[in-house]
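Sharing a chain and its predicted structure for anyone who wants a worked example. Both blocks are below, sequence first, tokens second.
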Amino acid sequence: MGIDNHFSNAQRAEVLTQALPYIKKFNGKIVVIKYGGNAMINEQLKEQVMEDIALLWLIGVKVVLVHGGGPEINEMMQKLGKHPEFVDGLRVTDKETVDIVQMVLAGKVNKSLVTLLQMKGGHAVGLSGMDGGMIEAQVKDERLGYVGKITKIRPQPITDLLEKNYIPVVSTVASDHNGNVYNINGDTAAAYIAGALGAERLFMMTDIAGILRDKDDPSTLIPSITVEEAGKLYDEGVISGGMIPKVDCCIEAINRGVKNVVIMDGRVPHSILMELLTDEGAGTMVKGEK
């Protein structure tokens, strides 16, 4: 949906004036973006997501970027001769694997996103959940090793950076009082962080258009649902498979104080801007009430 060269100056001005009410609405508000999947692997898409975030920051939206990095972790494990294992969709994380997770997420991935944001005109600072004790965790399931269940969120490091007008970029590794490091599910971490910040909106960037009434037909996208309606869609089997934990995280975020959560297709260029700054929106919005 890029603006092509045939766009007149008058048309460009019209687009900007139509975005004005939304710019006013979200100016000074906190928006959390959970980022991962294909939008992170494709370099062109990654640049567009960073452009969107830099633009939102420049118009006064307080953006917090929470990221995963599963494919990069798998790649590094394979280079080191380790084979990824999963139980119920969660990565089995032994001591050696959690070291790799920390190295890849808090190091390579986090700093590459910070650098990209700076190149696009934003001011970003990278954090991990371990910094300032931001995410405290304990063992989630003995079978999974160092996969963490969040026990506490301390949002102060993020709020301090937002007050200083930076974009916090958060990798989802956590620690406990004994110095153990844990791999945290990115969607869950984003839900807890957004709740602790009282965010206006949480974006869950995925590899599908949103919640579809027929999973094989993108035209059956459901634009918005309430938490109550989500329960019915579980019962009907509309929300199934990999979408169940995503929607669970949306409901978790709303229960923790986030106003609205949007499940959206991270593969669509500028989907964040379409959702935040246009009437049409993108993806499925999960709302706390009607």
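Comments welcome. The chain has one domain: 26-209+242-285.
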